[in-house]
Amino acid sequence: MSDHPLLYRDRPVVVGAGLAGLMTALCLAPEPVVLLSRAPLGAETSTAWAQGGLAASLAADDTPAMHLADTVEAGAGLVEAEAARRIVTAAPEAVRRLAALGVRFDEADGAFLLGLEAAHGRRRIVHADGDATGREIVRALAAAVRATPSITVLEGVEARRLIVEDGAIAGIVCVGPKGETMTIPTARVVLATGGIGGLFCDSTNPRASQGQGLALAARAGAMLSNLEFVQFHPTALDTAARPMGLVSEAVRGEGAVLVDETGERFLRHLPGAELAPRDEVARGIWRHLAEGHRVYLDARQQPGAGFARRFPGIDRLCREAGFDPTSQPLPVRPAQHYHMGGIAVDGQGRSSVPGLWACGEVACTGLHGANRLASNSLAEAAVCAAWVAESVGSAPGTSSRFGRAAIAVPAADLRAGDPAPTRQILSRALGVIRVRAGLEAAIAELLPLAAGTRPASNPALVGLMLAVSALARQESRGAHWRADFPSSLPMAAPSFLSLGQALALARETVASLPFAESA
Questions:
Q1: Same domain? 400 vs 261
Q2: Strand runs (DSSP E) across 328-406, as ranges?
Q3: φ, ψ at 510 (rounded to 5°)
Q4: Range of the domain at 161
Q5: CATH code at 118?
Q6: Residue 71 lies in a domain
Q7: pTM of the shown model
Q8: Is residue 278 flagged as an active site residue?
Q9: Which entry of 161, 278, 310, 473 is annotated as an active-site residue?
Q10: Does the residue 208 lie in any domain?
Q11: Segment 12-26, tens digit of pLDDT
Q12: In this predicted model, what pLDDT tens digit does every residue of 400-423 receive, in sequence order?
């Protein structure tokens, strides 16, 4: 932060240092680019925590068409077929590109070692070090970024506000590690800020993932899409640790089964049983827990004695928590894991605001629909980063819209978010199963928190948009399950929402509640 921000004038700014951000910056080379990382490069990103791998049709008995069919089936009617087709077709080459950048994927006999995960009809998941794919990807890409002279990395720097003039991006306001502020004049910003796990009590994501990119985009006027679709991973390790440790779906892919305290495989009736789509497995576990049962993942027979060799990181996680996967079942429960919704983008990652792109979990490309197919997210980030970089590189690099008045952003607008109030509210109302009364109560609580510039405002604003979207979708579809609307509507349609629309709908909702007059 010692450099004057005008040194970076008109450079593209990439916000976020997970797979999406790192890959976008690398693909922009040799054009000079600024990469903002709120933590040391490679730390505190969901990518680094990813145990699963990248889904790509690399096997002789697999094709992109088969991969697409599985993706569409899992997405419960909301996958945008053409967008998904482009992404899954490009996924094999994206895996090879990552390998060329130094990612050491697991291999056997000179070929990628492919695993199986839920709702995939073929073995097509590429892993690294068994269950440490994300960590290996971040290691290799961070090293490549540091070795690329055209990329300026600003660590410990967090984006707090996008400057919009004449309806387009004109700059970005950041806060450094010592609280100092800087404004970078730029007409090109890429948000690669990850997900929303930090807004839930029980999540497998870093606590710092609080939907910052959604708040930035919404306040800049961007359209958001499918915010109601929040994926809960069925098998988080059920301990007191927060964030919760993840027991990858790949463990079930290798034969582990779900049982209760009696030893019964209570999901055996589901098509696919333990390897049914994630939303179905999560709901099955949720209901069984609500009936007073305990739920365990039993890996004693399969993978059995080979558990530590196949899943060294998960084995270490379990043993640190006091469990031996080879001799005892592992207590598990659902936890928030991924957000299918995000900033609405086109095929080049462009948002509805000129000069603003999004990539990775913060974006909604149409690939995931209502329910993400396992391991499609890392593949999506790697594929789309190249397309985003191509689009950014071909966009005008200078802007005359940025005026001196835009630099003066009130200090109150730059406070870090306090997610604690929102975390409690969303965990009650936007869990695995939702109901109207709970959503209305959440909106009533979140609306005053979202107003103004208090530290709780940005997290509450994101939570409010999620709750409004969930209330508006009066059906059950994929990861959005309404107990009061248990059926799916005949016609599936994506949802779109701006900040103004969300606030208006929230006010209408609160005004219609019985306690509104006396409140």
A1: no
A2: 330-339, 342-344, 356-358, 363-364
A3: -65, -40
A4: 5-195+345-404
A5: 3.50.50.60
A6: yes
A7: 0.94
A8: yes
A9: 278
A10: no
A11: 999 999 999 999 999
A12: 555 444 455 545 455 566 788 999
